[in-house]
Specification:
It is a single chain. The chain is mainly α and 279 residues long. The chain is built from twelve helices and two strands. It has helices at 5-13, 36-49, 53-56, 58-72, 79-113, 121-129, 134-152, 155-177, 181-187, 192-202, 207-231, 238-270; strands at residues 29-30, 272-273. The longest helix has 35 residues, at 79-113. It starts with a helix and ends in a 6-residue tail after the last strand. The relative contact order is 0.18.
Length: 279
Amino acid sequence: MPITKKEKGRLRSHTFSEDKRDAFIGTHMVAPSISGSGALAGAAGLLASKPVVFLFNVPSSLIFSLYMIVLFWSASLANVSWYVFALWYTAAFFVLEIIIAAPLSAAAKAKLSGAGDWGLLRPMVMSLNYLAPLVPIAYAGILALAVRGFALHAILTAIAIVVLFVVAIVLHIVNINASLAVQVMYDKKTSRSVALDRSWTLLSGQSLKVLGVNIAAFLPLAVVVVLAVVFMGAAQMMWYAGIIIFVAAEFCISWWQASTSSIYAYVSKNARPMQYSAL
């Protein structure tokens, strides 16, 4: 049954939240298309203007570099001993990433974005929410298993590498889509769950672009780690390799944080309310 002229007039004059900026914390907003090169260039400018963020990332870089060098240079342990050691050592890395790296990373992003409130607990819970530390763990695990697998010619190791690679990709995409959550949480003074939802909304359909930015930002670190594993296997070179990994991690982590802050500044400025067709 068609609606009456009076009802149609009431619907046309009805103003719902899609006409109001930030109503429903962005649920009814359309985000602009992101430029990968623009995000990386903007990140360089942010780091040049706020180099203090490098200090925030010193603990994170130290934790990561120690994790990598001990994981790979403990390969002389027997098979069972190495896997047990790697499991407990990885668990310790996961905990340190949650309680130390997550709050400091949030503080760095807040500093880059010009937001206030550098709370400690909410970034920890947010990092746990989408298991952020499992991404570097998964990729490090792939490389570590590959090194041991080539030495032992183990078929089960090859299968484990394939499974871990699939898990790593899925976790990586989830982390990419939640990468703006800290900026949203501090900038808009929202709850953790709302900030995560809005991060996914702002990056909807643009995961691959942001993934490209992420890969570009972390490529120097990936290259350094692989070269360290391949060419610096001698025990006497371990700490030199660790220092090089630390420097690369310090730069790449900060560059990625600045990239997400650059993306957030662009989308929050240019996002527009969703438009609905007239009845």
